[in-house]
Amino acid sequence: MAESVSSRHINNLISQLNALAIAPPQEEGLRQGLLDAARSLSHALETPGESVQRIVYAVLPEFLAETGYLNPVDATAGPFQKAYKTDLPIFGWMPKMPIYTSNFAKWVDASREGQNGFLDSFPFEEEVNCNLDPGTPLFVDVGGGIGHQCVALKSKLPHLPGRVILQDLDAFISQAMEGTGIEAMVHDFMTEQPVKGDLLF
Predict the structure, then answer these.
(1) DSSP H or E stretch at residue 29
(2) Least confident of 46-50, 110-114, 132-136, 157-161
(3) E strands present in 86-161
(4) Residue among 40, 151, 168, 167 at smallest CA distance from 101
């Protein structure tokens, strides 16, 4: 019952806020108070990823003006670095902020909801030589996050021989999904690939 009352109150508040957006108060004290409350609520409702976007977008005009409106070509010198005062690329910075790593993984998971996977459009068994020795690499998901693609492959085609390997930074590998027959390997794809002889990356 409490949950339904709370939902009703929130829906009423949403209606009131929409009305205020059409005709905001003109008295300065009310206007400023409502603006401050709206900002606090907006920030409280943001996911960490949305917070990053807001903070980066805020410095984007200044960054573009400083760089002559040229397309960024350096992954360590973009609007993100300006906003967060770092010289690290975003995937170098993210592991130092576990909450962002966790939420990024959740976002990737949610973004796939209801969508076809690569095995729905790629005839894996027809295109890939699957008559392998079990110790031979079959599939390596480079930068594979927490392992959605590897799990999908082993779930749909569990009989295939060969190694299925998930690679990503430690921050993601430490949160990898559980899956039988999947090897989790910490690897930065900006460095040399340690697995040789794979059939499919």
Answers:
(1) helix 28-45
(2) 110-114
(3) 137-142
(4) 168
